[in-house]
UniProtKB/TrEMBL annotation:
Lineage: Bacteria, Pseudomonadati, Myxococcota, Polyangia, Nannocystales
Identification of the protein by name: Cytochrome P450
Subcellular location: Endoplasmic reticulum membrane
Species annotation: Nannocystis pusilla
Domain of life where this protein originates: Bacteria
Residue positions binding heme: C404
Family assignment from sequence similarity: Belongs to the cytochrome P450 family.
Amino acid sequence: MLASLRTAIVRTTDRAAIRMIGGARRAGEPPIVRPRLPFLGHALEMGRDLTALLRACQREHGDVFTLLVAGRRMHFVCDPFSYPHVLKAQDNLTFHEIGQEIGTRAFGYFSPPAGPELDELERYYHDHLKNAALAPLTARMEERLGVAFDRFTGDDWREEGLFDFSARVIFAAGMETLYGEGIADDAALRDFQRTDRWFPLLAAGVPAGAFPGLLRARERLLARVDRMRPDASAFIRARDLLLARTTTPRNRQHLQAAIVWASQANTLPAAFWSLAHLLCDPPGRAAIVAEVEERGFADFKRLPKLFSSISESLRLCSESLTIRLVHRDCELALADGRTVALRAGDRVALCPQLMHRDPEIFADPERFRFDRFLSEGGGPRQFSKGGQRVPIPLMPYGGGVSMCPGRFLANNEVMLFAGLALTRLDIELLEPSLPPLDKTRAGLGVLSPTRELRCRIRRRPRA
């Protein structure tokens, strides 16, 4: 009895110590970077500049170290050669619980538990967002982007912010591609932006009711996606039927509304940066215009320069974290032959932005080079570090089981946006340099600019 009581007290004390200061380091575990603040740990520093914090820790502690973030231990693996080892350790490192936690906090839904229903939902994404199913969605996206460009431009010059213009075009085209005509207007965009603005704090666990107008904005978005329009995509129709069979009507609404955020939150800033980078690079702009005008969009594989350009923009502006939950006490093997001990309940994180800005992998990493991802022969380029090929040199969409299932459509959408904007519109920047990245959203995907980029836009006369 006394032994059991002592064990319970020790476990309770250990859990409290972990939540407050990161706990004691056990044999074989990564070094713990002790925080200045109890419980919050390094959360504020991560919010200010995640990559700067990780680089400083990497210099002092090596490629694997532990931070305390809001009462949780996060083990960061910074060696790009070990990324596949983390992504493949699915028996011990899982994602479903993390995805469920974020979805419930940010969007109010509950996804199916691990089992046949979840497997069916995941298969559905692969069946409807890639391969043969991708072609009609991409064709519809090209059509709706053309309509949106006509809607938001005129024959005369208009001065405006390029980020605002990109957001209006991408939001209208993306929503109408998925949900049908009539769903996207200025009010819908404002409701989405209000939801997106508070997403980092929602995902961190702050209740939605704490933010002015957020619950009403969410309800308006729910009402928009609840009505099935006659020209809604097969993707949305099939998903709605699947959810109607496997969950409650209210949860179905929340799950459908979450697709609004998933399809827009990263695509909006990615489209802006992809166009802005090319507008600041006359040789790149000329090369992309010539390629698109010669080949069109019938086959995206015939647009390697445009594809490379989009990849380069994503390298520079994406700052996502790939996170896994340690399911049970285990050891993680690293690429150099070492192993690190992990304990159940901790998290393991990859921050690809460290790799994306590594000068050993990408020469002159702060510079935009539209053809960086092309080899001399025109095919995909391989990247290396220390003479060894880097297995996954670009990770803007996450990796492994948590890789974005809509990445093919998103990439096609950004390629279409940049290609069509450069060939259908005249765009002149009114500022000499691009705005900085907004580091406060680091870890969540593609970063927005800290300020607008003023420009003037008009429709190019059509032959």
